[in-house]
# Entry
Amino acid sequence: MNSVVINGLRALLVLVLVGSVLGQVLVVLMAQANGAEDPWFVGLEVPYSIAGIATIACVQAAVVAIWALLAMVASGRIYSGRALRWVDAIIWCGAIATGIVVATAANTWVIVGFHAPGVALGLVGSLVAGGTFVLLMLVMRGLLVAAIADRAELAEVI
Amino acid sequence: MPVVVDLDVMLARRKMPVGEFAAAVGLSPANVAVLKNGRAKAIRFSTLERICEVLDCQPGDLLRWEPDGA
# Structure
C-alpha cells in the first residue's frame, strides 16, 4: 500500500479528531445559546448537549478504529481476524451515533412538538445517511471476511 | 488422502539430503516436511516444475493417486 496515501489519511484523521473535540465544545455553547433564545428548548440544554457530545464521541471512537486498521494495512496484517474486531467497532459506532441523532430528532418532533423543517430533515437525513453507512460497512466487512478466507487458503499452497 | 506425494521415495532414489533439496528448489524446510508428510493441500505448478527439474523426474513420479480406503 502506498505510504503517501496512508500518511495523508493519518494526517487528516488527526484533523478530524481535533475538529471533533472543537465540535463537542461548540455543541454545549450552541445548546446554551438556544436555551436562552428558544422557549421550546428550555430544559433540554443538558440532555441535548450530552446527546451531541456522545454522537461526536462515536465519531472519535470510529476514527481510532480506522487508525488501528490503517496501522494493520501499513504492516500487511489487515487480513486477520483481529481486523474484524475494529471493523465491528466502526459499525457499532455508526449504529449508535445514528440512533442518538434519530432519537434526538424524533424527541424534538414528537414529544417536544417542535415542528421545524430542519428537524424533519435531520430525522430523515440521519436515518438514511446512518443506515447507508452501517449497511455499506457491513458489505465491506463481508468482503474482508472473504478476503481473509482466501488469504488463509492461499497460504497453504506450497 | 487419495493423492500421495512420493517425495521421500524420489529423494532416496536420487540420494539427495532434504536440506540440499529444499535449498535447490527454493522451498522452506517446513514446506518440504509438509509435502513429505502428506499434509499438503495444494502445490503450485511452478513449485512442481522446480522439483521435477532438481530431481530430474516427471510429475507422475512424485504424485500418485490411491483410491479411498486403500
Notes: The longest strand of chain B covers residues 3-5.
